[in-house]
Design goal:
Chain lengths: 461, 463
């Protein structure tokens, strides 16, 4: 069947799919241990993003603002960076790294971030001779790309700054892309079961922080400066997401001859097979029976649901590009029809992604991909009846489309604030495929009951 | 004790003038914390930006207006799905946000064409909506796009639409507060007086500085209805664009949030000689007092008394039940500013609680005058508090519950302290008589959760 790639025709956006680049940079920064980013710009650029992380994770993450005010906007804001960095260094004795993240305002006025860093480094060396605090510029003007490219810029900037060739470490680099703590836990478990060591960028497993008796359980990232430095010495890099970390894997290959395998995100059975086979090929370690069994359990679950409940059901998917593509591939495995895919930013390379060709070849339905999309594209098509769908896969900011049009929706991606605990569950790997299939089924089942639509069928399946 | 330099602020000693501990016999004039001044970069201040104050707080509450944000996508994304101001038309204002989606070429060559195109598209896609507000953001302000000219151009072209423009880049002022001011003054200057409202009662008011968080506005409107008072305009909870254009016809401005909307109330007084009545809409005593003042103003005291008696009879026993459970409990209030002075005394008088620390993100001097004069001795009053200060204060005052935003709430949870959403509420509304009971109920359920006791136990300890 056919797959067409179109662009949204409107100039403006109604209900955006993504946040802006600095948000992606901030997301990278919170994944690093002993790190507080300084967002150079107006205060909202930092405060709103902290709120958004709190919406998704129900946790606090520390991010600072340079608090750009009017005088700095007119006469230059580099003094605000200097003051901001020094305030952080003075008040946070454990801080080791400060990404300096630009925003639209300071990119527009042209503050010289690198020049400021040189100047601040001199001050730090003089005033804090016993401490090493690393400053890393993230250039993330919000009038380019999206949170997706901002994430990509953030990881790349860190690796460019920190990666140093020394001794081979026998490890893999796993560059996760923007995934949930549950996904990171799954990756770590798979690596452990295969007896493979890795530098994980970014290890966000600890974002799911406990309340501890000694009150010590704060959420923070777990990837260290040393992990990042060590990426130059690894056997190879696997970037799970082409658009979120892919450029970093490529850089490590170009600069340090660390071979790169970039995307497909291991969503669904086949992508996970490939992920594990890649690990096996690169490290010489065997895929253990435990994972064959886990794969089998996922297939067992999906087989109960596929031709009974999923076949011919039409799905719309929006979110991060690698996630959307991966979910579309998963849908085809589960006999769902991913008829509309929405990619929410202006990346011109999406239409060339080979995965679309593959999806087209495997599909049994007409598929439309919309680039530069917003959520109004989805809502308008539903409202004017040009699109008839049975399921929406996407993040919580699209919730009213599902609610108002009475379409069952499964929350995936970022942010998913209107359901509890989703960040704990993987969508990648076999376990993730199983979770997706069962969550989709349960969502459809609840919808059948609410609408009294053959709800009596749910007895013997 | 005068102003206080916290330990975490030893390296930024200018914070001393923002932190006051009230002691007996002192004149607050001697120790009023500095407020509404520049933020210290890198301090992890809680503050947001001027754009937020205009769009998210005030304009965005209107139920019939397109909120077009002229800038890159983040400012739109970030001010969507974060508020709890409902409306009686199925929450149009919560469901949509509009952006001109500025790109690099527009920053270089100007964004006016893209703005115009986006306005036309927005009206085309929502043919029933005829009103729009346009906000500048950091980058579009810096490049100097003339949004007014574009808006007037579109109005001429489309005829039946009306557009209001707000110049509120995030770097203006030092906090959300500047956005409130710009919005108020521009609306007064450009839009008030444009429409003549239909007058249906001899008693007419504007209800100013209330944003219908979880239905607050609707609670108060019920009282006004019972007293036969017509609300010409709500600024801006559950409000419409056009009702705000008729504000000049009210006989009285009733003001709750004097911080965000005191400006327009004062301007209406200046230009149209409409008196301004500041009331508190939280807590039994305050609400009753407010309704009495309204009754006196219009000479309908009996009606006010009837509403008060009805409500008190219905809700007072419930409040008393919670008072027994809550008296003596210690509270922190870390919010924007006004709720410090709205809440401190009412929690004390009506529930027997002690407000032991208060922090204001963007309050001005007058907010601190009010909060300190109403607040307790020994209580810490902070302007523009930051995260390390919060930790230190918690250590010192050991509260039983904290009113603050959800992110800070999640943080203090790790310290085994419950929070109530002091901005968007837990289970509101919190205004009015029933709201006071809701608020007490949420505090009771927060403080008496079995989880706090469990969380203190270490299962490794000897049996």
């Amino acid at each position: 069947m056919s797959l067409v790639i179109n662009q949204k025709e409107r100039q403006g956006i109604i209900n955006p799919i993504f946040n802006c680049q600095p948000c992606g940079g901030q997301y990278v920064a919170i994944g690093i241990k002993d790190c507080i980013a300084l967002v150079h710009g107006g205060q909202g650029c930092c405060t709103f993003v902290r709120l958004m992380f709190a919406q998704h994770y129900k946790e606090n993450f520390d991010i600072a603002s340079s608090s750009l005010h009017e005088d700095a906007a007119v006469f230059g804001g580099t003094m605000r960076i200097e003051e901001g960095v020094l305030t952080l260094v003075k008040r946070y004795p454990d801080i080791r790294i400060i990404p300096i993240i630009t925003t639209c305002s300071v990119e527009t006025i042209g503050d010289d971030i690198e020049g400021s860093i040189v100047k601040i480094n001199k001050i730090l060396k003089k005033d804090y001779p016993d401490r090493k605090v690393i400053l890393v510029p993230f250039h993330t003007p919000s009038y380019s790309g999206s949170q997706v490219s901002g994430y990509d810029v953030g990881v790349l900037s860190l690796v460019k700054e920190l990666a140093k060739k020394s001794e081979p470490n026998g490890k893999l680099n796993i560059i996760t892309g923007w995934v949930n703590p549950g996904d990171v836990s799954l990756i770590k478990r798979y690596l452990k079961e295969m007896d493979v060591k890795a530098n994980i960028l970014l290890d966000t497993e600890s974002f799911d922080a406990p309340i501890m008796p000694d009150k010590s359980g704060f959420a923070c990232g777990n990837t260290t400066i040393e992990d990042i430095a060590d990426t130059a010495n690894s056997i190879a890099s696997i970037a799970l997401c082409k658009y979120e970390g892919g450029s970093t894997a490529q850089y490590l290959e170009d600069e340090f001859k660390v071979p790169a395998i970039i995307g497909s995100m291991p969503i669904g059975i086949k992508n996970t097979d490939e992920f594990l086979k890649n690990i096996s090929k690169l490290t010489g370690k065997k895929i253990p029976e435990s994972l064959v069994r886990e794969r089998g359990r996922a297939l067992d679950s999906m087989a109960d649901l596929g031709h009974m409940f999923f076949a011919d059901k039409k799905v719309a998917i929006y979110g991060d590009p690698d996630l959307v593509i991966g979910l579309a591939q998963f849908c085809l495995e589960a006999q769902l029809q991913p008829v509309l895919l929405l990619l929410g930013d202006d990346n011109k390379t999406y239409p060339k992604d080979p995965r679309f060709k593959e999806i087209e070849e495997n599909s049994n339905c007409e598929i439309e991909v919309i680039c530069k999309a917003d959520l109004w594209e989805l809502e308008r098509r539903i409202k004017d009846k040009s699109l008839d769908i049975d399921l929406i896969l996407g993040h919580s900011k699209g919730r009213y489309i599902a609610i108002d049009n009475k379409i069952p929706m499964v929350r995936v991606g970022f942010p998913t604030f209107d359901r509890a605990g989703l960040y704990k569950y993987p969508v990648i790997g076999y376990k993730g495929a199983e979770w997706l299939a069962e969550t989709i089924a349960n969502t459809i089942f609840a919808d059948m009951e609410a609408k009294k639509d053959r709800e009596w069928i749910l007895n013997v399946w | 004790m005068p102003l206080k330099l916290l330990k975490c602020d030893q390296t930024i000693p200018e914070r001393e003038k923002h932190c006051y501990v009230k002691a007996p016999g002192e004149s607050i004039n001697d120790f009023l914390p500095s407020s509404d001044i520049s933020t210290i970069p890198g301090s992890l201040s809680e503050r947001g930006c001027a754009f937020c104050g205009a769009k998210l707080v005030i304009g965005g509450a209107l139920k019939d207006t397109i909120q077009l944000i002229h800038g890159p996508i983040g400012c739109a994304y970030n001010t969507w799905h974060t508020k709890r101001y409902t409306s009686d038309n199925d929450n149009f204002q919560l469901k949509y946000v509009w952006s001109t989606d500025m790109k690099e070429q527009h920053v270089i060559f100007g964004g006016e064409k893209k703005l115009k195109q986006s306005i036309l598209e927005a009206f085309r896609e929502f043919p029933k909506i005829k009103r729009m507000m346009i906000y500048t953001t950091c980058s579009t302000a810096l490049i100097g796009d003339d949004i007014q000219a574009v808006a007037r151009d579109v109005e001429a072209e489309l005829g039946e639409v009306d557009i209001f423009c707000v110049e509120c880049p995030g770097f203006a002022g030092v906090s959300q507060s500047k956005g409130h001011h710009v919005f108020n003054m521009a609306w007064m200057k450009e839009k008030v007086g444009e429409i003549e409202p239909v007058i249906t009662s001899p008693y007419t008011i504007n209800f100013i500085g209330d944003y219908n968080i979880q239905g607050d506005t609707l609670v108060l409107e019920k009282y006004f209805d019972k007293m036969g008072i017509q609300v010409i305009a709500h600024f801006s909870g559950n409000g419409t664009y056009d009702e705000l254009r008729g504000m000049h016809r009210a006989k009285l401005n009733v003001v709750n949030c004097a911080r965000s909307a005191g400006y327009i109330s004062s301007e209406l007084k200046k230009k149209y000689d409409i008196p301004r009545l500041d009331i508190d809409t939280y807590g039994f005593n305050y609400v009753a007092e407010g309704l009495r003042k309204l009754g006196t103003f219009f000479g309908i005291e009996d009606k006010a008394e009837k509403v008060i008696a009805e409500q008190v009879e219905k809700y007072k026993p419930k409040l008393e039940w919670y008072r027994e459970k809550l008296k003596g409990k210690k509270v922190c209030i870390w919010t924007g500013g006004p709720r410090l002075w709205h809440w401190t005394k009412t929690l004390e008088d009506e529930l027997g609680m002690e407000v032991v620390a208060m922090s204001s993100k963007f309050g001005h001097q007058e907010d601190f005058e009010k909060a300190i004069s109403r607040g307790r001795e020994g209580t810490i009053y902070i302007d523009d508090g930051n995260e390390l200060e919060f930790f230190e204060i918690l250590d010192e005052v050991k509260p039983d519950v904290i009113f603050t935003g959800p992110r800070v709430g999640e943080l203090v949870k790790k310290l085994q302290i419950p929070y109530i959403n002091g901005h968007g509420y837990h289970n509101g509304p919190y205004m009015g008589f029933e709201g006071a009971v809701n608020m007490a109920k949420d505090m009771y359920n927060a403080i008496y959760s079995p989880l706090w006791k469990l969380s203190k136990e270490d299962i490794r300890e000897a049996l």
